Amino acid sequence: MKVVELSGGVGGARMARGLAALEHVDLTVVVNVGDDLPTHGLYVAPDLDTVAYTLAGMEGPHGWGRDGDTFVTNNELARFGLDIHFQLGDLDLALKIFRTHRINGGSTLSEVTDSIRSSLGIATTILPVTDDPVRTRVTTTEDLTLTFQEYFVDRRHRDRVKQLEFDGADVAHPAPGVLEAIESADVLIIGPSNPPLSIWPIIAVGGVEQAVRGHPRVIAVSPLIGGKALRGPADLVLADLGLGSGTSGVLAAYRELIDVLVVDTSDQADAGEVGGVTIVALDTHIAQRLQAERLARAILSL
Amino acid sequence: MKVVELSGGVGGARMARGLAALEHVDLTVVVNVGDDLPTHGLYVAPDLDTVAYTLAGMEGPHGWGRDGDTFVTNNELARFGLDIHFQLGDLDLALKIFRTHRINGGSTLSEVTDSIRSSLGIATTILPVTDDPVRTRVTTTEDLTLTFQEYFVDRRHRDRVKQLEFDGADVAHPAPGVLEAIESADVLIIGPSNPPLSIWPIIAVGGVEQAVRGHPRVIAVSPLIGGKALRGPADLVLADLGLGSGTSGVLAAYRELIDVLVVDTSDQADAGEVGGVTIVALDTHIAQRLQAERLARAILSL
Question: Quick one: DSSP state of residue B130?
Fold first, then answer.
């Protein structure tokens, strides 16, 4: 069974791990690159790396970075006056140095991503949604315009969001294989990522939204549990953007894109049929591999 | 008293530490860049870093790298198929990342070197001999042409040397301040570095040889002790290039450049006057800071 998942960082990566564990699934993960930002000249791609590390079973205790990593280089960068808010672990730095070296040498992001996949022993196909630069830009209610890292890491997503822009998305081309994977997938899953911040920059890339709309079986997993984000600001951003709160906010963010929305059993009251979307309640706690595998199995048998 | 030292790596760096410790000395160290080579896309400048770390009292136990460094990132790079012969420590990587970031952003090597000097709390002026690329190339008697790192690190200087070339030196300009420092120095010291491998690529840069020849007081310190190199292949390279062995090899390498040659007391038999050069024997063991300071004081009172 061919399955494609659209994924942001931690939540989407955990969903991918569950899907990848199913024997009958041939999985391709299409990953957000809107958060990618050069850091000290290194090519940092937070969502791609979280997906790769999680699929390789190497992810850090909070879902990002490498398990058991240290921060010797990162902390020493402060000596030279560099901003070390964005913590780069020593093990993780090897991947960043490798990617930067290859990209500067003329490789595309998807070529390097596939080398990384292979080096980490991952069987699942991982595709950046595009090889072209797309940069998420957050405008706050106080009219600050921030990069994703400034908003999310430096300022700990405490600002209220007025507007999101995905610079470059209008001229970006999908990476090789992205549209083909979506079109040939039996099921297209939108992982439990932040809908505006992680999924919108994926579908903003030329042709991707159309491919998702044209797909006969699109199942989204809500990132909310009891109407709130487990981590990060998904519920706040949905409200800030006027999309509404809880399940209805997620539904509004995915309007005309999805056929099924999976919500957590804590939001069971929202189950039913809304505007042509079937809302199904399942246990969406997937921090553990077996939980993710169970949810993946349940989703694919809907 | 204005003193300029021409320096390669470990030996020259230790000499610089001794000179810098003298209260009446205003020291500028002009450093070889012929060994600089991009490594995994990072701007590695071995001699500049050894000089800086040694002046800051942070050098590693073998004279290069950082004291107490670890190699987490370096070892992890092997996972991605990168060659990790050239060991980059985690603390040391912070400097490399900083320099690469600044150079890629348009700073010159001498500007970044001065930032590093300041970040490490060093008072001594450190100048790369040039901001332009100069690359030492070693041709072996078996007609292999090697970069300095291939010759020195990967193959552990086991090849016999037929020829040295300093690619780019003929079109390189001295970095800002280099010629001025040499011209205004009361004493010009050539540190106990490998004459052909570390000092020749300095004087090969346009105008530097002329400035050294024109200087009234040039004192070289032989890197040999008992006629042999303490570390590295200086004695072998001198012989390979047909310059001769022991003190006479060093004299031949510095022909028409120097007024005084300081040899170790173990080579006391060579003291005297040869072809207009005064050869003086002093204790040139300078691994310890106090030894280096004593030698510096003795040289400046010659």
Answer: B
Is there a domain that residue B235 lies in?
yes
Report the residue of chain A nearest B68, measured CA to CA.
Answer: A72
Range of the domain at B168: 2-37+123-300
- The answer to whether A91 and B73 are in contact (CB under 8 A) is yes
In a domain, B160, yes or no: yes
Virtual torsion, Cα B192, B257, B166, B44, nearest 10 deg: 30
For chain A, the domain total comes to 1
The answer to whether the CB of A192 falls within 8 A of the CB of A286 is: yes
Q: Residues of A with CB below 8 A from B97's CB?
A: 40-42, 73, 77
pLDDT digits (tens, 9 = 90+) for B87-102: 999 999 999 999 999 9
Q: Which residues of A touch B105 (CB under 8 A)?
A: 41
Does a structural domain hold residue B82?
Answer: no
Q: Report residue B82 as tokens.
A: 């990168």
Q: How far apart are CA A215 and CA A189, in angstroms?
A: 11
Per-residue pLDDT at B153 exceeds 90:
no
The C-alpha of B47 sits at a distance from chain A's nearest C-alpha, in angstroms, of: 19
How would DSSP label each residue in B251-273? HHHTTTT-SEEEEEGGGGGG-EE
B72 and A80 within 8 Å at the Cβ level: the answer is no
Q: Are strands B277-282 and B272-274 parallel, antiparallel or unpaired?
A: antiparallel
User: Is the CB of B41 less than 8 angstroms away from the CB of A81?
Assistant: no
For residue A283, the tally of other CB atoms under 10 A from its CB is 14
For residue A99, the distance in angstroms to the closest alpha carbon of chain B comes to: 9
Query: Is A73–B73 a contact, with Cβ atoms under 8 angstroms apart?
Result: yes
Instruction: Spell out which chain A residues touch chain B, with contact meaning CB-CB distance below 8 angstroms.
Output: 40-42, 70, 72-74, 76-77, 79-82, 90-91, 93-95, 97-98, 100-101, 104-105, 115-116, 119-120
DSSP one-letter string for B32-84: --TT-EEETTEEE-HHHHHHHHHHTT-B-TTSSSBTT---HHHHHHGGGT---
Pairing verdict, β B228-229 and B224-225: antiparallel
The complex's ipTM works out to 0.92
Q: How many CB atoms within 10 Å of residue A264?
A: 23
Beta-carbon separation of B93 and A95 below 8 A: no
List the CATH number of the domain containing B161.
3.40.50.10680
- Give a yes or no: residue B110 inside a domain: no
Is the pLDDT score of A231 beyond 90?
A: no
Q: Is A204 exposed, middle or buried (0-12, 13-18, 19+ CB in 10 A)?
A: buried
pLDDT in tens, A163-190: 999 999 999 999 999 999 999 999 999 9
- Chain A residue numbers with beta carbons less than 8 Å from the beta carbon of B42 are 97
- What span, in angstroms and rounded, lies between the C-alpha atoms of A222 and A246? 9
